[in-house]
Design goal:
Number of strands: 14
Shape: rod-shaped
GO molecular function: ATP hydrolysis activity
Pfam families: AAA_23 (PF13476)
Strand content: 15-25%
InterPro entries: P-loop_NTPase, Rad50/SbcC_AAA
Protein name: Chromosome segregation protein SMC
Number of helices: 12
Distance between the termini: 56 Å
Keywords: Coiled coil
Length: about 425
């Protein structure tokens, strides 16, 4: 059962002289007035009565009062809570008239409902942890956060290595005119010898052409001079004519190869090989950089998968307020971090979380409600009524938006009882 405050009476607590009030069951009960009139003292008195001695103000008794503090609170579950007398001892009466204590109150009183500023002062992560604790996924989400942080650390290190490797690869020289493999001097020499041998054979054939040409000329002269020997020499001449034609045909397509490039390569073999090795080093460095970059992308995807898993976990949880979530370990509402929420949104979020911390506690004490404008306060009150929540709040104003006005420790317009009168002495003649 959700427990609320049906009524309370407070006397001589801090600035309060005497106040009696029945707050509205659902929605806002606003205690208005100027500063220093006793508004916050009312909340402190209720917190002390219900929250235990740890909520007791350092100077609980009203200054100048000869009568000790007195607090009387009636709750919706029938319990009556009192603090009175010299030591302000706690007394809790249940509906059957039996007495109870603070342990009974703790079953349905949420401490943060009595001390909203304590929750409001938490940092973003502590607020988020409070929310995760009440919806039961804190440990699981913490594990996902650890795994995401581990992946982020790995990615950061891989990113540094990838950037370093890429920079090193870009600084290495590369020679477009160098071959892919290093050159062997012995191979070049063998190629040179083969070309020289081929060129020698070509020269021999040229010499042979020249020799046959000279012989042909000699024989032609002899034929001219020795006509009479023409018959016996004619066959030889024909054969030589054929040989000459064959030799000319063979020698016509011959081409001598230039060994200058090979000779230059032989002389520059060390320089060429330096370029080749430099190119190989660059290709290897570029390949390593690309592999590291691919590893970085894989880690980035793994991180995104973890974040998606966290979002799915939160989406499946029962949150106390629509649009309430946790992102990167911080509490958010409508995608806004705590410090980006309006003051009214902060109060609404805090109230919803506190209510879910202990669903049996149906009320929240709220100080300094003046941070809400009138329209926002009305919206907040309507939301409280819709949720079945009771909020007793203070507001530095004396306007119509307040349920009551507190002035000099009393409710303005309410009959003011005498709270400081000492008991009158009862004297009878002859008796002392």
């Amino acid at each position: 059962m959700t427990v609320k405050i049906n009524s309370f009476e407070i006397e001589n607590v801090k600035r309060v002289k005497a106040i009696q009030l029945e707050p509205t069951a659902n929605g806002l009960t606003v205690l208005g007035g100027k500063n220093g009139q006793g508004k916050t003292s009312v909340l402190d008195a209720i917190a002390w009565a219900l929250g235990g001695d740890k909520k007791k103000p350092s100077q609980a008794a009203r200054t100048g009062s000869t009568i000790p503090p007195h607090i009387h609170i009636e709750l919706s579950n029938g319990l009556v809570v009192e603090r009175k007398g010299k030591n302000s001892e706690l007394k809790v009466f249940d509906p059957s008239g039996q007495k109870g204590g603070q342990k009974l109150l703790n079953e349905f009183i949420e401490q943060l409902a009595l001390d909203l500023p304590n929750f409001m002062s938490l940092n973003g992560r502590d607020k988020a942890n409070t929310l995760l604790r009440i919806i039961g996924i804190g440990d699981e989400l913490t594990q996902l956060d650890r795994e995401e942080q581990t992946l982020s650390n790995q990615r950061l290190e891989v990113g540094r290595i990838a950037k370093k490797k890429k920079g090193s690869a870009e600084e290495l020289p590369y020679y477009e005119d160098a071959p892919d493999e290093t050159i062997s001097a012995s191979d070049l020499i063998k190629q040179q010898q083969a070309i020289l041998a081929k060129n020698g054979e070509n020269q021999r054939k040229r010499d042979n052409v020249q020799k046959i040409s000279e012989s042909f000329q000699t024989l032609s002269t002899q034929v001219t001079e020795l006509r009479r020997q023409l018959a016996e020499k004619e066959s030889l001449l024909d054969q030589m004519d054929i040989d000459l034609a064959t030799a000319k045909t063979s020698a016509a397509d011959l081409h001598d190869e230039n060994t200058a490039e090979l000779e230059e390569n032989i002389s520059n073999i060390d320089k060429i090989n330096i370029k080749v090795r430099a190119n190989q080093d660059k290709k290897r460095a570029v390949s390593e950089a690309e592999e590291t970059e691919a590893q970085y992308k894989e880690l980035s995807k793994a991180i995104e998968d973890k974040r998606t898993e966290k979002i799915n976990l939160l989406n499946g949880a029962s949150l106390p307020l629509p649009d309430l979530s946790v992102k990167d370990g911080e509490l958010t509402y409508k995608d806004q971090a705590w410090d980006c929420m309006s003051a009214s949104e902060q109060l609404k979020v805090a109230t919803a979380i506190i209510r879910q911390l202990n669903p049996n506690c149906g009320f929240v004490l709220m100080d300094k409600l003046e941070q809400m404008d009138v329209d926002t306060m009305k919206e907040f009150g309507a939301w409280l009524e819709q949720e079945g929540l009771q909020v007793i709040a203070t507001r530095v104003t004396a306007g119509d938006d307040c349920s009551i006005i507190i002035e000099d420790g009393y409710i303005k317009g309410q009959e003011q009882p005498i709270v400081d009168a000492a008991p009158k002495p009862t004297w009878q003649p002859g008796k002392f």
